[in-house]
Amino acid sequence: MKLHFDVAVIGGGIVGLAHAWMAKRRGLRVVVLERSPAAEGASVRNFGMIWPIGQPAGQLYELALKSREFWLQLKTHGVLDVRTCGSIHLAHREDELAVLQEFCNHRSHQTKMLSAEEVLQRTHLANPDGLLGGMLSITELRVDPRTACQRLASWLQSEEGVEFHYGAMVVAVDDKHVHAADQRVWTAERIIVCSGSDLKTLYPEILQSSDLRLCKLQMLKSVAQPQRDSNTPHIASGLTLRHYPSFQKCPSHAGLRRRIAEETPELDRYGIHVMASQLSSGRVILGDSHEYDDQITPFDNMEIDGLIVRELRKVIRLDDWRMAQRWHGVYAKHPRLPVLEVDAADRTTVFTGTGGAGMTLSFALADRAWTRWTGENA
Fold first, then answer.
1. Residue 140 · residue 87 · CB < 8 Å
2. Beta-bridge partner residues of 292
3. Is the pTM higher than 0.70?
4. CA angle at residue 126 from 121 to 127, to 5 degrees?
5. What count of Cα atoms within 13 Å lies in the side-chain half-sphere of residue 172?
6. Which of 36, 76, 117, 161 is 20 to 30 Å from 335 by CA-CA measure?
């Protein structure tokens, strides 16, 4: 077992794995230290969506598209089943249709409008009752969130030579040394702390002053549905238009937000917008909600689950609305930045807080950081 490395990555979620891969691509010796037996945080508790459409035009959208290319490389290497499914935003209200049309008119993303009939031709999930149309985006991908990190880690270990240590509870970092609770010590020339929603174990003083917020989301998974199309697009609703900043520039957006706040204030109270993604197993991941900071408790709110299902029934069809699983996840989110990157010490960097966009942005964010650290642009 080697104990000295070029790079030590603390955290085996998608952000940590992205850093491990990008460092290995540059020929560096890498070790990943994960305190759990496997990644079990936000990286496995999501839709499995790689979601460029949620990023605003400009740098973040370009980063999302670059990350998308890295995911497709993993498909080419046979590491993961990556589906080029795209997404459809459904419009069941006139203001939703107006926002989608205005967004398409900007031509900032790879989208086009669909009639109601065209939507129904592309997905069996859309509810035809009151359907006015939709917006197709071709850039979104699907992976299985429960297995993606595990399979990526296995590939990095077996094929790329990255060393992994699970059950390694890191309690301190000093100089070039990483200390685990069981007295093991690793040394590395550069240390990357990808701690996810853990804001207290390492460098609490940095994280306390960082403006990071914790966000809890509740999600569900249906029992298996008939697999009429295993590559059906991700589905987003009109409620989603008020969640992602991409749509805020649309003239009709303010009216849509106002209408939802007046008609269903309970949705704003819990930050609910509804989406659906059908896995190859036939099960459909459904969600979600957003509670922040002091609102977060260990206990799931059944009212929230009920509201999610209530709103989903308006926009999608399932043959069986029984749920196979319910869970919640917690992630860290910065109010202004796509990621919090802070130098904690010489050649030790805290890299966390990608919010709900970790699957979408992590590969490109890590690649950009390593380009800067290795002086490739010099």
1. yes
2. 215
3. yes
4. 120
5. 9
6. 36
The full set of domains in the chain, from first to last, is 4-44+146-210+338-373 (3.50.50.60), 87-138+213-333 (3.30.9.10)
Task: Look at residue 230 and tell me whether its pLDDT is greater than 80.
Answer: no
Alpha carbons within 13 angstroms on the beta-carbon side of residue 283 total 17
Contact by Cβ (8 Å): 307, 267: yes
Q: Hey, which residues does 10 pair with through a beta bridge? A: 33, 193
Q: In the prediction, which pLDDT does 2 show?
A: 56
Under 8 Å between Cβ of 256 and 287? no
pLDDT computed for residue 357 by the predictor: 94
- Token couple for 130: 């009151």
Whether residue 140 contacts residue 85, with contact meaning beta carbons closer than 8 Å, is answered with: yes
Distance CA 257, CA 261 (A): 6
Written as six digits, the tokens of 151 are 């399979």
Tokens linked to 94: 């006139």
pLDDT in tens, 318-364: 999 999 999 999 999 998 999 999 999 889 999 999 989 999 999 99
Per the structure block, which two tokens stand in for 135? 């917006």
Q: How far is CA 157 from CA 34, 142, 148, 163, 195, in A?
A: 14, 23, 14, 6, 20
C-alpha pair distances (Å), 32 with each of 29, 89, 214, 279? 10, 38, 24, 29
Q: How far apart are CA 214 and CA 211, in angstroms?
A: 10
Q: Examine the pLDDT at 1 and tell me if it is beyond 80.
A: no
Among the residues of the chain, which ranges form H helices? 14-25, 59-76, 94-106, 116-122, 148-158, 204-208, 253-263, 265-269, 302-315, 358-373
Give the contacts of 360 (CB within 8 A, at least 6 positions apart). Answer: 49, 50, 51, 52, 54, 55, 64, 67
Phi, psi (degrees; rounded to nearest 5) at 319:
-70, -25
**β strands within the chain, DSSP E:** 4-10, 30-34, 49-50, 87-91, 111-115, 133-137, 141-142, 163-166, 170-174, 177-180, 185-193, 213-222, 234-236, 275-278, 284-287, 291-292, 323-333, 340-345, 348-352
Burial of 179 (0-12, 13-18, 19+ CB in 10 A): middle
